[in-house]
Amino acid sequence: MNLDFNSTQSTRYLQVYDYYKNLIVTGRLMPGTKMPSIRRGAIQLGLSRTTIETAYLCLAADGYIISRPQSGYYVTDRSVNLFTKQNTHNTKNDAAHQNKILYNFTSNNVDAESFDFNLWRRYIKSTLRQDGRMLTYGEPQGEYELREVLCRYVVNKRNAICRPENIIIGAGSQALLNILCPLIKTRHTVCFHDTRFAQGMVIFEDYGFDIKKDKENASVLYMTPSHMTSLGDVMSVEKRLALLKECAVYNRLILEDDYDNEFRYFSKPIPCLQGLAGGENVVYLSTFSKLLLPSIRLSFMILPDSLLPLYEKKKALYNQTASKSEQLALCQFLRDGHLESQIRKLKRLYSSKAKTLSALLEKTFGSCAEVYMGESVFLVHLKIKCTLTTDELYNRATANGILVFPFHKDRKKNDGFAHIALSCCEVPVEKFPDAVKLLYKISYED
Fold first, then answer.
1. Domain made up of 12-86: CATH architecture
2. Per residue in 91-116, pLDDT tens?
């Protein structure tokens, strides 16, 4: 670390603050990356824990990092919205150096019209009336009746093979991976099909796994078969069977993240890898964050029978991270059949928004661009014929307040197009026209 602790220009904690802030806003510390622990940071820099903790508290107060109880500090996704120019001598002026985001087409947040808050409140209130149940801690593995309902859901809808005893509930994928990694620690190596999932990769790194780029060198494969590319392309049945056969031959464990299986345009959901494998050699993960609300942190994992004995030995030592009241509310929500209507509502909403956005892009760019949608309900792809590369357009859009996904099909050559993808989830429809006009302007300005 290039820190001058003999400098009289600022205190030591501010130097530490400025160092990490620079790494974050320049993208060298990506969103979701875990910060060094206070103890480790103090050892690395030869400073007191108080100095490191003070610097972290300042970073957290300014939104660069967030504290997660019993886990540590993590870089927030707010960092992508920050202007890279820094004033290292006056932290009070940080807000003046932020690039104001006008249109966030990368957000995982949901549309305000996508969820019936009044309906959910009724279920939460009904749960809170169960006074006796609210006086006890939740089951470490998750409330049994919810696991029963989830079991029926994945068996009927995803062709999974499991019993309620195979299901573990947690508050998000990271919480579940913290349970899984110790169970498979002897495998040592993991390959992520989607390398953008930094939040998952950091968990494996924390447990000492070596992240491999090629699946041939890994004993664990983290796959998203229902969302193989940023277009939302789905892995075919043939490729799923071939993958399962290959992994059986080379004794590779598959972690199947099925987070996006309900949002398909042109195809019905394909049976999950876990079901095609007969429930063996595949760990299945899914979440309700996209179907309901991101703030309802309810995810679940299906362990194969081979890993259950290892989990049973330790499960009493794990605290349940998901809210007991939300688990019980979701259980009744599912029993009453509201999930199916919620899925239909989301498909109508997001497909309508995506079509509206596509029409505006086609009208504005005309023959200067190709507009198309893949399998995903909420993603629109735009290939603009211009002198800019994909990265140049991405950077220019960010500087002008538009966040988009850069899409690189082949980084080795420039085909004369800048290729980006836009998620229509968060941005309201009424803001689409201005956003598209601005995007057109920055694509061709000198």
1. Orthogonal Bundle (1.10)
2. 444 443 345 888 999 877 778 788 88
Residue 416: strand, helix, or coil: coil
Cα–Cα dist 284/304, whole Å: 9
User: Cβ neighbours of residue 41 under 8 Å, at least 6 residues apart?
Assistant: 16, 35, 47, 52
Asked if pLDDT for residue 167 goes beyond 90, the answer is yes
Q: Domain 341-444: give its CATH code.
A: 3.90.1150.10
Beta bridge partners of 190: 211, 220
Distance from C-alpha of 40 to C-alpha of 34, rounded to nearest angstrom: 12
Q: Which residue do the tokens 């930094």 mark?
A: 198
Mean pLDDT value across residues 395-414? 76
- Full DSSP string of 65-82: EEEETTTEEEE-GGGGGB
Q: Residue type for 21, please?
A: K
**pLDDT tens-digit map of 23-38:** 888 888 888 888 888 8
Q: Per the structure block, which two tokens stand in for 39?
A: 């103890």
Extents of the domains making up the chain: 12-86, 139-319, 341-444
Q: Does domain 139-319 have CATH number 3.40.640.10?
A: yes
Give the H/E segment covering residue 123.
helix 117-128
pLDDT of residue 268: 66
Q: CATH topology of 139-319 equal to that of 341-444?
A: no
- Token pair of 281 as six digits: 């050699």
Instruction: Give the strand pairing for 402-403 and 103-104.
Output: parallel
